[in-house]
Every structure is written in structure tokens, then in C-alpha cells.
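pasting for ref
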Amino acid sequence: MRAIGSSIPRFDAGDKVTGRLPFPADLNAPGQLYMKVLFADRAHARITHFNTSKALAAPGVVAVFAADDVPVNEYGLILRDQEVLCGRVGGVVRTTMDNVALIVAESEAEAEAALDLIEIEYEDLPGVYSIEEALAPNAPLVHPERGESNVLHSYRIRFGDIEMGFSQADVIVEREYRTGSQEHAYLQPEAGLAQVRPDGTIEVLVAGQWVHEDREQIAHALGLPEERIVVRYVGVGGAFGGREDMSVQIILALAAWKLNRPVKIQWTRGESIRGHHKRHIMVARARWGATRDGKLVAAQVDVSTDAGAYAYTSTKVLGNLTLACLGPYEIPHVWVDARTVYTNNLAAGAFRGFGGPQGHWIAEMQMNHLAEALDMDPVELRMRNLWREGSVQATGCPLPAGVTARETLVACARAAGWVETESGWRRVEEPSEPKAPRMHHRYSLEAARARKARGIGIAASFKNVGFSMGYVDESWATVELHGAGDIERVVVRHAGAEVGQGAHTVMRQFAADALGVPLHKVELISVDTSQTQNSGSSSASRMTFMAGNAIIGAARQAKAMWDAEEDRPCIATYRYVPRATTPYDPETGASDPNITYGYCAQAAEVEVDLDTGHITVLRVWSANDVGRAINPKMVEGQIEGAIAQSVGWAILEDFKQEQGRVLTDQLSTYLIPTVLDAPPEIIPIILEHPDPQGPLGARGMAEMPFIPTAPAIAAAVHAATGEWFDELPMTPERVAMRLAARKGSSAT
């Protein structure tokens, strides 16, 4: 079986399905202690009394740690604006996810019991709990030390002449859009084990997305050299961006270091939901203009996101959203103002799509509304404006080569029943195939025949691949060739995290292909800072792209040494650095923001219950240009998983906070899609137009299928009901209330 282009079974599949693969909660060490976290009881308050003596005297308690026990009490991926522990008189909590103190005891039950013995009193401080409150004049400040505004960061784009653009428009559409928060809901809650090795290094075994970044943040907070810290990942039970920022890493290392004993922690589901960041809430006002023949002439967008109490990756998410809110379209005149603001809600951060879903919700809904206003087919309108090779972005620079926005939309539209005629694109009554959706088997009988309506909608999108806007991205790989006459054994060292996407299988496939050896000869050493160099994060749709280029580079160098009969084993280390990007100009947004892009288009067919407002997504067609399908079956899996997750964001998942307190802190109150909620038919359409920069042409693709799902569903709901929904999620309550209001107004 060839290494590249074959659906090789995942190398970790057997261990996962049999339970042999350990996850952090499975880890134990002789003499280990157990840790529990005291979370803040208020969303914004100053601690006026703090005493741990009773807790320290409780049965089984070995230590209580608070703010003064942390050598450098700060951390943060982008900005170090968060304390590791807040527990001290005068300490300020800014959100209920803040860690106040730690209890370490001989058993988990003893640690938990001692939490109630910590004496703590608060003075409540005024808070802000929405974007509007945060931006209001004289609003209470979440971080007064950072200035006189709650604005964490802002971007702007000024391209062309916006007034001239609108003067050329025959149709102008102005709408407000909102999106809600979203919980990652990965299967494995945060857990881990830390211990001091005989050589004095502190070993932290957890689940995450970037071992070297975890090491850097742990070392900084503990005031130790990075070489004193070793971070290793065991099984990672899902991530989706939710493990990019710190959760238990620093506090585990702190306790193990201070006590010189192994320390274990395992969060409950409620602690997990409370303790890690969420997808950004977004509110936007968009005004777009087009000529009567369907050419976009102007786009103005004002958009804000809720960063929550700490920065996390909010500035970078906003950077992606700032461009994504214009969609993959040529627009000669653009004006964008974007900002992210501090509130006293849970922090927001990375989540699959990284600003792309919110941005494309704005752009694709504007295209939907414009198509209706122009009485033009939505595919035809998009075709008249889509990026093409050589198109110039609103940042003033040409797109990276390999632009396939049109190819993905054509493939998706044709599969979903559109045809191209002499007068333009239009949809025929029945999509090409499959002819009818397979419905889920239901175990209950309907008491009465409901009134239902069906519709189909479509959307297009793009997604950046790799870190962007001036960040120097890199990925290191080492390849060792062992043997005498022939290569008998290949050892690949690459730190990239396997978070469920199949990265470690793909890494082996790249090495085997580059060296011309069978897959069984390739071994992988990964996610261990003591044995690998920096790979960057498993995020930004970058791991296949970056790791593939790095591993191929190292393999080719090692093979050249082998062919030259140099000393064996032949070992080569290669650092892949992609082409440079540049940050937005603060006044105009001028930049070359991203290394390259991937492209995706989706169509959705829905059925709406006109009485209950329940939306059933019957079928989704998803056309993705992946450049080169290194492992086609895993590509299909990413498409199916992304769509199921994005259906949840679009119509089901309603994460609620009230005055900074989480109301949906269990999976019984925060509902995610089950097998009965996922579309019965997901039709993956895999296109392979090689990316000139990608390894063997491959593009990153795992985030792309999430992005256009929501606007495609919204367009389908409109086709079924005649109503537009500009706010997510489109829950049954919202839909039913809108339909009932329309029915009531028509009756009068």
C-alpha cells in the first residue's frame, strides 16, 4: 500500500478502542497526592479576608497553595494578564474561572472536603457582562492597570474609497449579526500528573496542543529555566482549540515542585466547563452594496467580540475575523472596524475556525441578503464576485497562489442540485444525489403529523493555514536512518500533538513516502519536550502543512547522507519556516496577513417544524480543496466531525452566563449534538488542487468544514420558512417565536 493517498488505519486506533492508551486521568504514581482547585465565587471582587489555617489542619491535607506561593504569578499565551492563583488579601478575581487556591491532600475526597474550610470574604466590584456594557461610557474596568478602556485590541481595514463604493451601489443591505458562545465539550476533562524526576527536572504529563509552549509558561510562572521542565502528552481526548491555553499544567508543576511528591488532578465536567475558555461571542453591524448586475462595490463592517476576563488568543482570533468578515470576495471598497473587549465573563479563546465562523457568518449572510434583494440566485451572485488567482485582498496584497474558491463552490453547487445555464447558475428541483436522505431511526411514535417545510442553502468560505500576521512560524523535525545495507528502521522526532485528528499517522506517511520505505519501518517519537524540538501548536490548520514540510526536509537530508554512505545511523534535523507574513498596518490594515489558504463550500438541506421551530439538518454537501489528501478517510472524518460540531453551534448549543456565572455547566444543561442530531447524510467532496507551498501539495483542512455550515443552514431555513435569522444559535424557541409572531401579524 502506498504511503501517501491511502487510507492507512490510524496507528493509535487499536490502543484507543481496547483501552490500552493511557489518558491523563489514567496516570498514577507511587505516593501520589491529589489536588483540588478553589475557583472564585464571584465574577468581579476584591478579597478582603483570606485564611487557610483550618483547611491546612484538615485530615489528609498536605499543603494549601495561594498567590504568595507562585514565584512569578502570571501567565498568558498572548499577554500575561492572568494570575496563576488569586488567593491573598487584596487579590482581585475577574471571573468565576479564576483559581483562588489549591488544596493538596492524600486523597481526592480529603482535598475536596478541605475546600470548604478556606475562609474567604469578598468585596464585590462593579462588573461588565456584555460587549455593550464593556463599551459604554464610564464602564467599570476589568483591567484598570491597562488603561481607561475595556478594549483589549482593535484592527481596521481601509481599502479603496468607501463613500465612492456606496455611491455606485444599486442595492445596499444593512443588517446586525450576533453569534453565541460555545463550549468545546471534548470527551476528556482536564487532568494530569506531575512529579520531580531523580535528576531534579519537573515532569508534567497532561493533554494539550503545544508541549513547548506549555513548558515555557510553566517555567516562567515557577521562575525556573525551561530545561528544568519536561512536558509530555499522553492520550488527548479531543481539543478543538480548548487546550491551547493553560488549565492544570502550571498548578500541577507548582505543587509537585514544592512538595517533591507526585501530584494528580482530575477535573469534573463542571470544573472543565468553568475552567477553560470558550468561543467568542460576536456582535456586528454590516452594510454592503452591489450593482444590479451583482457586482460587489462596497463593504462596511463594525464588529466586536467578547474576550472575557483575560486575553488568551483573543487578539489573534480577532485578526482572522477582521479579514473573514469580508468573505472570499473581490470588493473594491472596504471599511472594517474590529475590536475585542474585556468583560467579567469566562475568557474566550481558540475554537475550531478561530474567528472564521463568526466572520463568515457576517459575510455569507450579507451575500444571502443581497441575493434576495437582487432577486439573483445565491450561487450566481457568489460566482460573480469570488476570489480568483491573482485577486487582491482588502489588505492590499495579492492572494497566495492556489486560489480555488470557485472550484469548491462549483463542486458543491453541482452536487446539491445547481446547474450552470446560459443565463447563470440556478438550482433544479432535485439535487443530483443522493435522491433522498436516510432518516435516523426513531424510537418514539409521533402523536400527530407536524407541519414541516424544507429548504436548501449554500455558503462559501476560506481559512488561513498556519500562524499569521507577522508571527514567525516554524516546525522542527529530526529523522534517523538505521541499518546496514538497506534502511531497516526510521525514527522520526516531531513534537506535534495528536489531538484526535490523526496527525501522528500522517507524520509517518510523510516519512515513509519521502524515504521510499514501508510504513512499518517508521517509528515516531513525539509530544515530549525532552526528546523533540519545537513544532508549534496543533492549531491554525497548520500541523499537516508544517509537519509535512519539516519531516520531508529532514528525511531528504538524511537520505542524502545515507546515499553518500556517511556514518550510520544517519541523522538529520530540519527547521521548516514558511514564507513571511506581515501584521495589519494600524491605520489602513495593509498587510500580507497569511501564509496560504484553504477553501470550502457547503450546501445544507433542512426540515423545519413550523409548530415547534425545531430544525433538522437532513443533508450537508461539503466541498473542500485539501490540496492533497494524504489520508482520504481521515479527511472525510474531519469533514464529518466539523459539520456535526458546527450544526451544534448553529442550531443547538446555547451556552449561558448570567452576571458572569455559568448556568450551563453540565452536559445535561448544555446540549451538544448526539447521533440523532447530526445530519443523516454528510457528503464529503474532496478536491485536490495542490497548494504550491504545501507538503506534496497538501493544505490544512480540519477547520474549514466548520466555517460555512451556519450560513448555509440559515439560508436553507429561509428557503423553508421565508424568515431570516441573523442571530445564532437558531434554537427551536427562537424559530418558533419568530414564526408565531409572523402568524399572529398575518392574522391581524
